[in-house]
Amino acid sequence: MRAFPVVLPSGTRYWTVVDDCFEVVEEADRFLREARLARSRAETTTKAYAEGVVLFLRWVEATGRDWRTAARDMGLFMLWLKWTPGNGGWRQVVVPGPGSKPVRGEIRINKVLTAVRMFLVHAVTNKAAPTWVLEQIYELGDDLDLPAEARGESGTMRYRWRARHRLQEPETDIDRASDEEVVAMFLACRSARDRLTLLLLSRVGLRPGQVAGLHRSDSHLMIDSRGLGCDVDGAHVHVRRRQNENGAWSKSKKSWVMPVDFLVVQAFDQYALERHEVLGSGGSDFLLVNLFRPPYGSPITTDAIGELCESLSRRAGLGRMVTPRMGRHAMASNVVDAGGSQDEVQALLGQENPESARPYLHPKPSRLRAAVERVASPREFLEGGQ
């Protein structure tokens, strides 16, 4: 049992589940096809769902259960996920022992449970599993644990179905990349393409899927772009969600315009010269392509962007790995440190919910200290200042 990629004649890709004889597991395939084609989920999302369903089906097979009714023992499945060693749970020897480290953490287990719940709900909807399965994976709960924005305006308490099985996840905040780290990584770049990639992450604040999915036609770098059929003033890039042959995918469903400054425009110009020296007018319409190893001219992938950040962090001697997401956090924090507002950060990050921008804000220590020092001293309220 394993997750397996499928490429349709249209070029659309999704992930399915096959058994040891490479026969498609029909019910899992139907669920994953609907998630990808009917619900417009990203290819990476169907991959994550497929991997979660595979683990569930492996556990069912190893324990002699029927997947249609195994939801009643979901607690045992969670225990299996936590302690069964690698290779997707195929190893039979499980030796947790006192003080040993779990194989999978709370976050990973919760993601697997989410995929399994969606798979079982789909099976119940299509009459492939009994309806009482829903009672095993959901319970009736209220909305008191939801943010105020999600409760509606009536003010009355509402009830909803809540996942029955979920582990308490540790609070892990994503740190921002400091300006010093970004500069050190910039100086460690060995090509104009790498410098532009780093700036798109840390200066423009794009996600890796959005960077790898940019086309040359998305960048309008002139003061006036009306000649290109665009009425937006100043240099900017258009961030669009589209199907890409390299699997790059914009998480944001909407398209938006991202302004860029002169530093980014310079990086675009230097990369254009570098690309032309290698490919001439050839290559794909993607903005960032392979220039230094085959296949030349093909678009870079999101994995390549992650490898670049890891390599730059190591060459710059940072002592930690600065991830692409930390660059996005740095961009949002710098906007606020420079006097920007939260609604500006929300718009620049291409987010719909105003609260979505809050986790990206990491004030500089100097700004926090200045905020404390602005508070009046109690001595000012005493007569004579004593």
Task: Report on the architecture of this protein.
The protein has about 375 residues and is mainly α. The chain is about 40% helix and about 10% strand. The chain contains 13 helices and 7 strands. It has helices spanning about 25-40, 45-65, 75-85, 105-125, 135, 180-190, 190-200, 210, 260-280, 300-315, 325-335, 340-350, 365-375; strands spanning about 1-5, 15-20, 140, 160-165, 220, 235-240, 255-260. A 3-stranded antiparallel sheet has the order 5-6-7, with no helix packed on it. The protein has a two-stranded antiparallel ribbon with strand order 1-2. A hairpin with a 5-residue loop joins β1 and β2 (about 15-20). α1 packs antiparallel against α2 (about 45-65), α1 packs across α4 (about 105-125) and α2 (about 45-65) packs across α4. The longest helix is centred in the N-terminal third of the chain and has 21 residues, at about 45-65. The mean pLDDT is about 85.
Query: How big a fraction of the residues is strand?
Result: 5-15%
Kindly report the average pLDDT value: 85
Label the overall shape: globular
Radius of gyration: 25 Å
Strand line-up in the sheet with most strands:
5-6-7
Determine the structural class based on helices, strands and strand pairing: mainly alpha
What share of residues is helical? Answer: 40-55%
Please give the alpha-carbon distance between the first and last residues.
78 Å
Give the biggest beta sheet: 3 strands, antiparallel
| Succession of helices and strands | EEHHHHHEEHHHEEEHHHHH
Number of helices: 13
Count of DSSP E strands? 7
Low-pLDDT parts are none
